[in-house]
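help with these tokens:
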Amino acid sequence: MCFKARSFLLAVLLSLPLAFLLGCTSSMEQEFEEGRIYVVNNARPTGGDWGFNIMQVWVIWEDVRYDTPFNMTVEKDPTGAGVVELTDSPLPGGMVAEVTYYYIARNVMEQGNVTITVDGNVTIDLYMKGWDNQYSTVTARVVPGRWDGVHFY
């Protein structure tokens, strides 16, 4: 192979990774979709063998209280209550929302927080850390999309 052809080939091979890197870095800024926030209450309700456990669950967002009906029975069957929507309209993508949830268990009010970065619709699933433990607490996870299913224990 002649010197000019080899130099040209070497220049092309060396410039491809550089072109790739320059092309990738220009679009590294993440784009977020607008979305809504929903909550589903999959905590264990009062009843069953213990006669008590979680009495009530609600969330506070933007100084508004939203009561969340139980989406599951003591026997882990769906009640059909579904989700509660916290937003009147879609929130801007990338917005950070802090939602506080409260519950009364064994006549004591407890609370937790969930921080969400809006990137499409999301559902906060409130559920028991341990379904069969009467001293279990409520915890939360964020599920992409509008999800009103029951939590699998």
Notes: The CA atoms of residues 38 and 79 lie 17 Å apart.
